[in-house]
Design a protein that fits this description.
The protein is mainly β. The protein has a single domain, classed as Immunoglobulin-like (Sandwich), CATH 2.60.40.1470. Helices cover 0% and strands 60% of the residues. Strand 7 and strand 8 form a beta hairpin. InterPro entries: ApaG-like, ApaG_domain, ApaG_sf, Uncharacterised_ApaG.
């Protein structure tokens, strides 16, 4: 974004959860999100949108209000962190999406979530 008024970054760390993947053909992953408001106005996360793609190319869209039951406000310079999860039918896949945000001045904008991988360790040599 050219102006710094509505500047939000999203960092993601994902991990495989072998203890929560007991069923054959089901692979559980956790992802930890850090949303940082680097803009000049307070913002609120209103909605989320995810595009989840498994190793077979099957795509699932998920959208709805907030994250983990919250629609957090982030003051300038503040961050919000949460952990959530997803179950895939393949040992690898990816996620990407965005958060719909509203700034103090009422402007709506999307904070992009770049594509990230979901991979069972030692799957690829």
């Amino acid at each position: 974004m050219s102006d710094n008024e509505h500047y939000v970054t999203v960092e993601v760390k994902s991990r495989y959860l072998p203890d929560q993947s007991p069923d054959e053909g089901k692979f559980a992953f956790a992802y930890h999100i850090t949303i940082s408001n680097k803009g000049s106005q307070q913002v609120q996360l209103l909605n989320r949108y995810w595009l989840i793609t498994d190793g077979n190319g099957k795509k699932t869209e998920v959208h709805g209000p907030g994250v983990i039951g919250q629609q957090p406000f982030l003051a300038t310079g503040a961050s919000f962190e949460y952990t959530s999860g997803v179950i895939l039918e393949t040992p690898l896949g990816s996620m990407q999406g965005h958060y719909e945000m509203r700034a103090t001045d009422g402007t709506l904008f999307d904070a992009s979530i770049k594509v990230f991988s979901l991979v069972v360790p030692k799957l690829v040599n």
